[in-house]
Specification:
77 residues
Length: 77
């Protein structure tokens, strides 16, 4: 599946944007990884109470990631 669909798409977009291949792959895979969160946020916003769910989910996941990254950085230093 990756070789058939994802790899040619990444190659085409990185060539079109004139990005180095490694940077393009990392950037586009990160974008694809966050696409589910964006869709969930859009769908939840249209429901009653969905906005508070969105804010909590987005900030909550961001804070968890921030503290994990900072902790790993401090421990590796």
């Amino acid at each position: 599946m990756v070789e058939e669909y994802l790899a040619p798409s990444i190659a085409y977009i990185t060539e079109w944007l004139k990005l180095p291949e490694a940077l393009g792959a990392v950037t586009l895979l990160a974008l694809a990884n966050g696409a589910g969160d964006v869709v969930t946020a859009i769908v939840a916003s249209s429901e009653d109470g969905g906005l508070s769910y969105n804010v909590g989910a987005i900030y909550g996941s961001g804070l968890v990631q921030y503290f994990i990254d900072c902790s790993l950085f401090v421990l590796s230093w």
